[in-house]
Amino acid sequence: MSTRSYAILGTGAIGGFYGAKLQQLGMDVHFLLHSDYEQVCRQGLLIESPMGSFTLSAVKAYHHPEQIPACDVVIVALKTTKNYLLPQLLPPVLKDDGVVVILQNGLGIEPQVAEIVNSKRVIGGLCFICSNKVGKGHIRHLDYGMITMGEYQDDYQPGGITPRMQQIAEDFNNAGIPVELSENLLLARWKKLVWNIPYNGLSVVLNAKTDELMNAPDSRILVEEIMQEVVRGAKGNHCKISQQFVQKMLNHTEKMKPYLTSMKLDYNEKRPLEIEAIIGNPLRMATEKGIDLPHIAMLYRQLKFLDYQNLNFH
Amino acid sequence: MSTRSYAILGTGAIGGFYGAKLQQLGMDVHFLLHSDYEQVCRQGLLIESPMGSFTLSAVKAYHHPEQIPACDVVIVALKTTKNYLLPQLLPPVLKDDGVVVILQNGLGIEPQVAEIVNSKRVIGGLCFICSNKVGKGHIRHLDYGMITMGEYQDDYQPGGITPRMQQIAEDFNNAGIPVELSENLLLARWKKLVWNIPYNGLSVVLNAKTDELMNAPDSRILVEEIMQEVVRGAKGNHCKISQQFVQKMLNHTEKMKPYLTSMKLDYNEKRPLEIEAIIGNPLRMATEKGIDLPHIAMLYRQLKFLDYQNLNFH
Lengths: 314, 314
What we know:
Number of domains of chain A: 2
Order of helices and strands of chain A: EHEHEEEEHEHEEHEHHHHHHH
Number of strands of chain A: 10
CATH superfamily of the largest domain in chain A: NAD(P)-binding Rossmann-like Domain
CATH topology of the largest domain in chain A: Rossmann fold
Oligomer: homodimer
């Protein structure tokens, strides 16, 4: 059994679920909480899940990062819109030889974290999960759960498979969470964007669920055109994504139950949208290589407008 | 005094206003009405206008085009979404040497009308007017009113200034409506699209008035990028639009009072949007010349999706 200690920054749908699973396995897990702190101190963390529902009654909950002991692994599971907090949050909770695992959407967060903790201490993770926070300290896991992990190296150079990521993967596997190890984090992130950019973006701009986007011919075409732009942006960054993968994403989404994307949920709840991580950063990464992605560029500006109006006026 | 007779197809904000002004001058005007027919028969047409409000109590109102006598000038002032009716409506109301004046938005309607009545009998008109139908037989003219007219020739070849358009312009001028004669209808239509495509399209997609689009930096940039695509589409069709004109449209809109575009009004009222005339036809005209307009192409698909959802589901 591992003796690794974990800190969870952001105890929401993602961090709350994975952290609770790790603690359920017997790991030493420390949860940073913000608005749910008092509720969780009193009543613990409630996880509903088809894998088995449970309550963690004894939660090591913290309101301030300085109170958390330095840990071996720090899981960043905040919304990326809160990442401006990381320069304060990360240093106190990370052991000198500890590692940060970034379980966030989008692209371009690892370099920002590497500036804070050094690039040799950053692992990126992509969560394939349907999970929502439905109340204070109350997480409803709906489906899936797999994580893809990849080592971060400067400029997203492929990092190979390292022993430390294998150890962390083993902890997750033992907790019932399948982990796929990727030798190429950048490729893994671009591949996830093939889904995330069109569906997150268009769901907000067109006020639509995934099934509506797939059923109407014009939005269906737009989804695929945007996916092809993501493939071009990836290619300009030496990441090859096949046409079969694009078709798989389309077919998979057609078969999914009607789904409200995370960005649309944020929009409906009047929370800031993760526009920069999911759309702005990949767009800039393509532009820097001279790749023009006009649909994504337009989507970016539309979302920035809608986010601004949503937070300030409506 | 002219002896020309006028038929008005579509007695709404445009047709009702101009037709009433012509009749007020003493012209022989015949109005085709649909849902307002009985109200107008009983109570006439009420025009509110800063130029002077008035009621036409004796209106030659018709419910069926076969009842209208053949006229010298037929004004087409329907929404373009009703143009599928024109093959039925036009032939009975047009004298053998009569002419059709198309007072509609967008591009590509004249060739369709030329297929019905012959290209030598079509004049295009662009209305620069703020006018709304606020009730049955009740039109509120708010501001402006100028019409730009141009002769249509096959494939929008410039038609020069002809005596017949001068005569019609004289009737309008006598009725208090300034008319500008254009030698190049295609250029006039592309120039109007510099305003119409970005503001009509984005007002619907982004749920915004003109002032909101101009005040937020991202939408402001998007408006201008779309205007530049219109300029490129025009250029590919041998219509030169200057950068000064683009800047004039931006500056003018910045100074305007907050304005709900006609497409946004249609959307709010759950009427079909004039997507093909304002966006689809110009887009195809550019594509046929090998000009790629990616922002406008995306706007087109977004509007088609929203129009479909608006009419069918929401």
